[in-house]
C-alpha cells in the first residue's frame, strides 16, 4: 500500500535548509517517492502551526522508512538539523 511522508517544518536558517531541500528531493526519488505538496498554501485548523508543510508519496510505508534511514537522506538531513524545527510522520494510505 502507498504511504505519505508528512512533514511540518519551521525553518530557522534559510541557507542551511536550502542545502537540505536540494539534496532531499533526489534522495526521495531514489526510493520511489515524489512530492505532492511542498510549501504550498495551507490553513492551520488545530495544533501547532508550522509555516512549511510537505507531503510526499511513496510506493509503501517500508520504502518511505528506508528512504529516511538511507545514507543519501541522512546526508541531506544533516543540513536541516539546527536549521529547522520539524515533525515528520509516515502514514500508510488506504488506496
TrEMBL record:
<dbReference type="Pfam" id="PF07045">
    <property type="entry name" value="DUF1330"/>
</dbReference>
<dbReference type="InterPro" id="IPR011008">
    <property type="entry name" value="Dimeric_a/b-barrel"/>
</dbReference>
<feature type="domain" description="DUF1330">
    <location>
        <begin position="2"/>
        <end position="93"/>
    </location>
</feature>
<protein>
    <submittedName>
        <fullName>DUF1330 domain-containing protein</fullName>
    </submittedName>
</protein>
<dbReference type="InterPro" id="IPR010753">
    <property type="entry name" value="DUF1330"/>
</dbReference>
